[in-house]
Design goal:
Strand 3 (53-54) and strand 4 (61-62) form a beta hairpin. It contains six helices and four strands. The longest helix has 13 residues, at 95-107. It is elongated, with a radius of gyration of 24 Å. The protein has helices at 24-31, 65-73, 77-83, 95-107, 110-119, 138-149; strands at residues 2-4, 11-13, 53-54, 61-62. The strands form two sheets. Strands 1-2 form a two-stranded antiparallel ribbon. With 150 residues, it is mainly α.
Length: 150
């Protein structure tokens, strides 16, 4: 059996037909309390009444906008932010979700794990051949000058 979702227009194949002839994604979105919101202005992050971030393309709101953008609109969050004039460090997740992930990272010692994992990859003083065109730190330049004047 084949039918077209009445909301998003996606062609659906299979034996399961959701109420009102919606696809699974549209059915779940509206069943969970989702609404269609006015599209946000360019360069602005808008949130719905639940605190979810509103998509500039379709007006739906999600806890994690990045997943929706990738799965429904076929672009990366970086491309989306550039297209709609958003800062690269703009938050595109619900505040509570961001805080939950932050707490999980701290509880699982993520800061210490990142430091330990990066310890062996850090460039040591004097290993300028490993920089591959990167700027030398100011402190290293000063240290080098001190050594030459001695």
């Amino acid at each position: 059996m084949t039918y077209t979702c009445k909301f998003c227009g996606k062609v659906q194949k299979g034996s399961k037909v959701y109420p009102n002839e919606l696809c699974q994604g549209c059915y779940k979105y509206f069943h969970d309390g989702g609404t269609i919101n006015p599209l946000p202005s360019r360069g602005e992050i808008a949130r719905d009444s639940r605190g979810f971030v509103v998509c500039h393309i379709c007006g739906r709101a999600y806890k994690r906008l990045g997943s929706h953008i990738r799965e429904s609109h076929g672009m990366t969050i970086a491309e989306y932010k550039e297209m709609f004039g958003l800062c690269s460090n703009s938050r595109t997740t619900e505040h509570e979700y961001s805080e939950l992930m932050r707490r999980h990272a701290i509880e699982n010692n993520m800061p210490e794990q990142l430091l330990a994992a990066g310890f062996n990859t850090r460039i040591k003083t004097g290993e300028t051949r490993l920089r591959k065109g990167k700027q030398v730190r100011l402190q290293e330049s000063l240290d080098k000058r001190k050594r030459k004047t001695r």
